[in-house]
Amino acid sequence: MPARKRRRFDHIAPLTLMLALVPASAFSQGAGLGAAGELVDPDVLRVCADPSNMPFSDENGKGFESKLAELVAEKTGRKSVAYTWFPMVTGFVRNTLGANRCDIIMGYAQGDELVQNTNAYYRSTYVLVYKKGGSLDGVETIEDPKLAGKRVGIVQSTPPASNMAKADLMKTAKVYPLMVDTRFAPSMAEVMLKDLQSDYIDAAILWGPMAGYYIKESGTNLTAIPLLKEKTGSRMSYRITMGVRPSDQEWKRLLNKVIKENQAEINRILLDYNVPLVDEQDRPITQ
């Protein structure tokens, strides 16, 4: 998750009885067990999140998942949003959602067995980043011969790494660590793009939401090419969901309803952060 994949997927939220069938005004019951004994808070959206994982989450509320949490809280009748902060490292789910300290992870890759996934609310892809106007202009795949011998930055153990190995690019690659506690060290996306700007590397491969955000923040002459044309190796695009406990079926149904009814607003939030969105046919979503 994706990068998230990389190291990135983080955050969490709450609920009650017959959620999908009851109007939002009915959700103002006292806190306690939700539908069928689900441990979802009916009044507060309890989110599990990394305290320093931009552009996803941040203690100061700057991340797009905070904007999404506010939307979910409003649409499910919650009075407020509260966070359980924990770094996106090994043990994140166990110490947050699994410990019933919160009720929703706002961004989680579809298919991971540690959580129950809602329907996907966006689909994004890994991207290849390089300077505009250079020798790599026009490169759209990891297999492109123009990348031979180039210093390509890659995060350890992410899906593009296997594709790079097949393309014989790892000999000259610059490998960055997968697990980083960004409370104490900068994001690898930020580090890689600075290395690219300084010509320490020739290109970088990153999870799209991270690359898009940091490219926009830097205002530099970089381009991000979605890796959607790979002929072999690992897939580069992934669906992102909200993660809940396996027992919280009614909560999941309510969240699916919120996603379906508010997809346009969700897209707007993501696009404001320069997240590269693609549909199921790999076509760019721009609005």
Account of the protein in words:
Strands 1, 4, 5, 6, 7, 8, 9, 10, 11 and 12 form a ten-stranded mixed β-sheet that branches. Strands 2-3 form a two-stranded antiparallel ribbon. A two-stranded antiparallel sheet has the order 13-14. The chain is built from eight helices and 14 strands. It has two domains: 4-122 and 238-280, Periplasmic binding protein-like II (D-Maltodextrin-Binding Protein, domain 2); 125-226, Periplasmic binding protein-like II (D-Maltodextrin-Binding Protein, domain 2), CATH 3.40.190.10. Helix content is 25%, strand content 22%. Strand 13 and strand 14 (284-285) form a beta hairpin. The chain has 287 residues and is an alpha/beta fold. It is elongated and about 60 Å long. The relative contact order is 0.21.
Write a concise synopsis of the structure shown.
With 287 residues, the chain is α/β, with parallel strands linked by helices. The chain is built from eight helices and 14 strands.
Helix content: 25-40%
Strand fraction band?
Answer: 15-25%
Our count of helices gives: 8
- Topology as H/E string? HEEEHEHEEEEHEHEHEEHHEE
What class would the helix/strand composition place it in? Answer: alpha/beta
The major beta sheet can be summarized as: 10 strands, mixed
CATH classification class of the largest domain: Alpha Beta
The third-level CATH topology of the largest domain is D-Maltodextrin-Binding Protein, domain 2
